[in-house]
Structure formats: structure tokens, C-alpha cells
Amino acid sequence: MLAWNPGLNQSGPAEFVFRVFTAVPALRVLLFLLFLLLYLLILCGNTAIVCVVCTHSSLRTPMYFFLSTLSSLEICYTSVVVPLMLSNILGAQKPISLAGCGAQMFFFVTLGSTDCFLLAVMAYDRYVAICHPLHYTLIMTHRLCVQMVVGSVGLALVLSLQLTALIFTLPFCGRRREINHFLCDVPPVLRLACADIRVHQAVLYVVGILVLTVPFLLICVSYVFIASAILRIRSAEGRRRAFSTCSSHLTVVLLQYGCCSLVYLRPRSSTSEDEDRQIALVYTFVTPLLNPLIYTLRNKDVKGALRNAIISKAASESN
């Protein structure tokens, strides 16, 4: 494993600053309020899913176990980025130390990678449920579910640690190292290096393939078998119910993998720093916000559990 040496060949103070979204004070206030509102909605929506799944015995199944884990990831994922982003939007541009930048990158890549692996695990769960319904409870045991989640986190940790350590062995140019982004993401930090980064770019592509391409291909294979099984169902109602259990997951997959692929797998010659920052807003705010909405609005079990929880809470308060 490569050693992380923050002081290697560094000139000037070992810190970075993020580029401002806008210099207009009124627009900064509007952006702050907008992003704060989205962040609070993300926290509330995903926390509601976690609480409902944990407190309702009818939702203690592999599918909802993975859904609550995904919601927990989304809470952590956005919390790594958004609070610092909000403080920089409204207040003065506060520098972030080299170690702080590395820590943010490590947790951001770890949580994002785990998110991608977990979506592949959820596709496998749907495959077993639809293609092998009689053996579902025998295959998808609680132990196997926990092992798959732990494996996803472990693989993400290893890849993120290697990538972050490799990047922060680079020397960075200038005394004012301004990142054209709102977080310490890999591509914008690499652009600040004053050294040959071809090896680092190659490693980034390899990690991108392992995190994005391989799981996405596994998801596609799962859905080929799922589609084949759904088409063999004789009743239209049965086909509709089987498809509805997969459509929410497929929507999230297309959003997550599509946006991340545009940032991490495009050739560097065709990328724009401003475009990367705009796309990053989608998978930082939109995807974590849509996850609870998609899964609750399209899932009768979760909607029913939420409704019962609200009614029970209202009844207990009235007494």
C-alpha cells in the first residue's frame, strides 16, 4: 500500500480553497437556502425510511434491509459534503487542510462506491425474488444479506484508501490551490497536481470500471433474467406486480450510474470542470433526495407503514 505523505514536495501552506458558486450576495443566500432545504429533505426522507423499516416487522425482509442500508448511506454520503459546502456558500471561503481534503475524498469515494455496490446487490435480490421465488427465503438469509453489505463496504474501503493515498503523494502547485468544485473530488484535485498524472488517471479509470462498469454489467445481466421471467408470467396483474418491484430500483440505478459515469469515465479531453461540478450536484443532492421519494411513492408496503406510523404518532400525542 502506498504511504500518504502530505508534506511531500509541497510549497506554501498545505491547504485548498473551493471556488465560489457566485460572487453576488443575494444569489449566495438563495443558493444557501436551496441547498439547505434539499439537505434537510434528504435527511428527513432517508431517516423516515430507516425508522419505518426498523420499527415495522412486516418490512423486515432482505429487500427492505437493503433499502434501509441504502438510505443510511445516503445520509452519510451527503453529510460528508453538504455542511462544509453550505458554510463556504454563505460565509467567507474557508481553506481546507490537505489532511481534511484527503479525509473528505476518502469518505466521499468510500460511501459513493458502497452505494454503487449495494445497488448491484439489490439487483441480485430482485433476481432471486422473481426468478427463484420458492427458494428466496432459503437463498437470501439474513446472514448472506449482512455479508453482502459488509463485503460492499470492505471493497469500497480498500479501493478508496488506495486511490486517495496515491493522489495525495502528488505535489500540488502554487500557494493558493483553488479547487473548481464544492468538494475534494478526485478529478478536480488531480488537475491541481504539478506532476505527471497519467498513472493516477489510469488508476482512476480502473477504480471507475470496478465501481461503475462491473456492477452495472451485473445489474444488466440480472435484469435480463428478470425480464425473461416476467414475460413468462401468464397474468397481466402478475407481470405488473413483478415489474413494479423492480422499476424503482432501475430508476435509481440509471440516475446514479449515469451521472457518475459522466464524471469518472469520460476521457479527460472531453471533460469540463464546470460540467463536472454541475453533474456532481445531481448525485450529491438529486439522487439521494429521489431515492426515498421513488421507493415510497412506488411501494405500497412502505407507504402503508409510513401512514400507520404517522397515525400512531398522532394518536399517541392526542392522548
UniProtKB/TrEMBL annotation:
The chain crosses the membrane at residues 29-52, 64-86, 106-124, 144-168, 202-231, 243-265, 277-297. Gene3D superfamilies: Rhodopsin 7-helix transmembrane proteins. SUPFAM superfamilies: Family A G protein-coupled receptor-like (SSF81321). GO terms for cellular component: plasma membrane. It comes from the Eukaryota. Keywords: Cell membrane, G-protein coupled receptor, Membrane, Olfaction, Receptor, Sensory transduction, Transducer, Transmembrane, Transmembrane helix. Residues 45-295 form the G-protein coupled receptors family 1 profile domain. It is found in: Cell membrane. It is a multi-pass membrane protein. InterPro entries: GPCR_Rhodpsn, GPCR_Rhodpsn_7TM, Olfact_rcpt. GO terms for molecular function: G protein-coupled receptor activity; olfactory receptor activity. CDD domains: 7tmA_OR10A-like. This is Olfactory receptor. It comes from Marmota marmota marmota (Alpine marmot). The gene is LOC107135384.
